[in-house]
Amino acid sequence: MDRWQAMRIFVKVAETESFADTARQMFMSAPAVTRAVASLEDLIGARLFVRTTRSVKMTEAGARYFDDCRRILADIAEAEAAAGGSYATPTGTLYLTASVLFGQMYVLPIVTHYLDTYSTMKAKTLFVDRPVNIVDEGIDVAIRIGHLPDSGLTAIKVGTVRRVMCGSPKYFERYGVPQSPADLKDHRIAASTAAWASPEWRFADDQRVTVDPVLRCNTNEAAIHSAREGWGLTRVLHYQIGPALMAGELQIILSEYEEPPMPIHILHPEGRHAPAKVRTFVDMASASLRENRLLN
Predict the structure, then answer these.
(1) Where do the HTH lysR-type domain residues begin and end (predicted)?
(2) Structural domain tally of the chain?
(3) Which residues pair with 190 in a beta bridge?
(4) End-to-end CA distance of the chain
(5) Which end of the chain is more exposed for a tag (fewer CB within 10 A), N or C?
(6) Are residues 155 and 266 both part of a single domain?
(7) Distance, CA of 118 to CA of 281 (rounded, Å)
(8) How many Å apart are CA 99 and CA 143, to the nearest integer?
(9) Which residue range forms the structural domain that includes residue 204?
(10) Are residues 219 and 138 in the same domain?
(11) Which stretches in the chain have pLDDT values below 50?
(12) Are residue 133 and residue 19 in the same domain, yes or no?
């Protein structure tokens, strides 16, 4: 059997943890799957799986070989796609992720413009306020807010955001404007548990204030709405209140006490070998986000 095909079979067995499931998914007989794995084990001189009547688990050698096989097969697929032209023309479905509000407010308009520009493309969005492993979940592009850990992903900085305190003119007229973070203890606070679960809020110069919100909201939208209505103050990322700021419905306070801004990055895993669908979207999104004055 072709070695590359045997490697594909091995990878599928490792992913499904089943010889029978692999046979069904690859339209092969179970004995053929077994022979393919056995041929690889003979070739490298090590067992790849520990088999019992109930489970199939990789050995330590199998786990190392699995990572190498996936990389090699990805390189082959990349070379074939390049030869076939998919690296020149956007094709397929673009799968991207961002946080909920940022995705709805700033990413979605870019996505729809992208689909209008490349009529053969489709897109799928995952807007969630949780960490997403873009490799494990098959994401093509991610937009992330905050400082990034070291990784092998390509990261392009496209802007910054600030964490700000805000309230409505109606509230300030009735209750006054806090002059320092310490004054917040005397004001009504609506906090979004989705954005900042800790009761300790940090400000510039390592100032820390423990707040006891009267209202805790599980969404940013709810906390912002309460502030717009004049009920209390809230703390959010400034892009989330961009329209309300421009309409005069909210005002930022304590700006001199803000922490340094956080970066916005576009991430993707393919590096310089990214297919056309990724490259064209990243180029479009980078230009659009950098031109947005609310994000810089």
Answers:
(1) 1-59
(2) 3
(3) 215
(4) 56
(5) N
(6) yes
(7) 10
(8) 8
(9) 163-257
(10) no
(11) none
(12) no
Q: Per-residue pLDDT tens for 153-190?
A: 889 999 999 999 999 999 999 999 999 999 999 999 99
What DSSP line would sit under the chain, residue for residue? --HHHHHHHHHHHHHHT-HHHHHHHTT--HHHHHHHHHHHHHHHTS--EEE-SS-EEE-HHHHHHHHHHHHHHHHHHHHHHHHHTTTTS--SEEEEEE-HHHIIIIIHHHHHHHHHHSTT-EEEEEE-SS---TTTTT-SEEEEESPPPP-SSEEEEEEEE-EEEEE-HHHHHHH---SSGGGGGGS-BEEETTT---SEEE-GGG-EEE---SEEESSHHHHHHHHHTTS-BEEEEGGGGHHHHHTTS-EEE-GGGPPPPEEEEEEESSGGG--HHHHHHHHHHHHHHHH-GGG-
The pLDDT tens digits for 16-65 are 999 999 999 888 998 999 999 999 999 889 999 998 877 889 999 999 99
pLDDT recorded at residue 201: 87
